Automatic annotation (TrEMBL):
PROSITE patterns reported in the protein's UniProt record: PROKAR_LIPOPROTEIN
Name of one Pfam family that matches: FlgO
Recorded superkingdom: Bacteria
Leader sequence residues: 1-22
UniProt name for this protein: FlgO domain-containing protein
Source organism per UniProt: Zoogloea dura
The UniProt record lists the keyword Signal: yes
Classification of source organism: Bacteria, Pseudomonadati, Pseudomonadota, Betaproteobacteria, Rhodocyclales
Keywords recorded for this protein, A-Z: Signal
Length: 195
């Protein structure tokens, strides 16, 4: 009798499991609302705010008309962030952070040159606007920029460390800097892997 009871229970279990018609799918994809409130975007926007706090001439775009300093109000050039271990290389992450830095500065009222529509800027396929120290003076002078924003990123076991600097184009002196970190999650990893 015992084997008959076990067989009956097993059959009942199979029948009950067949009652569920569709498997439950748990989505890890973000909603539009979650995407709109991206922590990645906010981290980069916060980094711009911190960088501008440290840049003496960037008190506010509106104050440019109240000063005799001709560099205040002049445009910024934002270079593509590069891999700290290979300064001639970037990734989708470096290009995206640079785009968000330029975007946020524009939203705050600063003038930012869009290098992708200008001639004479060192552009490398799939890299972005890479500016090395020797090129900063030439690019900034050609575009009459008050400062160049450059940066690097470095991947560690669990974080991506990002460094942003405001550089005086005439002297190559760092005027302001800000460091921050992003979690090395699936999203960030995918942006680093894309060249």
């Amino acid at each position: 009798m015992r084997p008959l009871m076990i067989a009956a229970l097993a059959s009942a279990g199979l029948l009950l499991s067949a009652c569920e018609t569709a498997p439950r799918v748990v989505s890890n994809e973000p909603t539009y609302e979650q995407a709109q409130n991206s922590a990645f975007n906010q981290a980069n926007y916060n980094a711009v705010a911190e960088l501008l706090k440290r840049y003496p001439a960037a008190s506010s775009p509106a104050s440019a008309s109240n000063t005799s300093d001709s560099s205040v109000g002049a445009p910024f050039v934002v270079a593509t962030l590069v891999n700290i271990d290979q300064l001639e290389q970037s990734s989708t992450l470096g290009r995206l952070i640079s785009e968000q830095v330029a975007s946020r500065m524009t939203q705050l009222g600063y003038s930012v040159l869009e290098l992708k529509v200008r001639n004479g800027v060192y552009m490398k396929r799939n890299e972005g606007e890479l500016l090395l120290t020797r090129e900063i003076k030439e690019v900034a002078s050609t575009h009459n920029a008050q400062a160049v924003i450059v940066g690097t990123y470095a991947e560690s076991a669990t974080l991506v460390h990002v460094n942003l600097k405001v550089v005086n184009p005439s002297t190559n002196v760092i005027i302001a800097a800000h460091d921050y970190a992003l979690p090395l999650d699936k999203q960030i990893s995918s942006l680093i892997r894309k060249r």
